[in-house]
Amino acid sequence: MPSQEPRTDVDARYSSEGAAATPWPQARDALAAAELFWISTVRPDGRPHVTPLSALWQGGALYFSTGPAERKALNLQTNPEVVLTTGANLWDKGLDVVVEGTAVRVTDDARLRELAAAWEEKYGGFFHYDVGDGCFQHASGQAYVFAVAPRTAFGFAKGEPFSQTRYRFG
Q1: Do the domain assignments include residue 20?
Q2: Under 8 Å CB-to-CB from 38, ≥6 apart: which residues?
Q3: Region labeled Disordered — which residues (predicted)?
Q4: How many domains does the chain contain in total?
Q5: Cα(98)–Cα(133) distance, rounded to whole angstroms?
Q6: What's the distance, CA 2 to chain centroid?
Q7: Looking at residue 65, which CATH number applies to its domain?
Q8: Is 95 domain-assigned?
């Protein structure tokens, strides 16, 4: 897993004059608190695919789940590179965070049980999962779980001052 403390810099081209970089702990807290994320994957023919999902920030990585036959799971078989995005659909306030990395499947049942408990704690009983055969198990069937440790992340602070911060890991 990459270093927990990234190299951080503000991109003056896309920031208000004199804007400071958003500290990584602030971006990390935004990832932990967010309820909705958007995942971008690449279809086998090269076209993009974007869809909303729940995710969990834990131990330096974002975790998400998907059914084995869902488009994003099929895309990941060919290309595991993803972008996960969260934030607020407001122009002049808030912090949007974008995480780029490689999706790695989690199959250890003990780790999956920890994640299932954390999912239910964060999102409530709607997201109750049992664990077995290296997957989340639920009424609709199985779900694969993936971890994405950030390789690069971006923080977009909105409102005065606007800033674009890049976080480089590893």
Answers
A1: yes
A2: 50, 51, 52, 53, 84, 85, 86
A3: 1-21
A4: 1
A5: 31
A6: 15
A7: 2.30.110.10
A8: yes
